[in-house]
Amino acid sequence: MNNYNQFKTTVLQPPIESKLFITHDLAVVRQTADHVVVMQKGRVVEQGTTDELFLNAREDYTRDLINSVPGLGVELGTGENL
Length: 82
What we know:
With 82 residues, this protein is α+β, with helices and mostly antiparallel strands. Helices cover 39% and strands 16% of the residues. The chain has a domain at 19-67. It contains four helices and two strands, in the order ααββαα. Strands 1-2 form a two-stranded antiparallel sheet. InterPro entries: ABC_Ni/Peptide_Import, P-loop_NTPase. One of its GO terms (cellular component) is membrane. Keywords: Cell membrane, Membrane, Transport.
């Protein structure tokens, strides 16, 4: 690798940052997460982008979790029910 390519890959590329946030607070998840993994009894039930899960959950367990929190059925920023 020449010096320019090394410079480009080490200095010019933005760092990739990931955080693992484990919570039962779905309101916080809805507002802060980009990707969500739903677990039930230690097993992954469903995963996807936050919008995919909150707007179109495939699994009953995920839908039940979302529906158990008042206001999560509202599209963010609009105040309108989905």
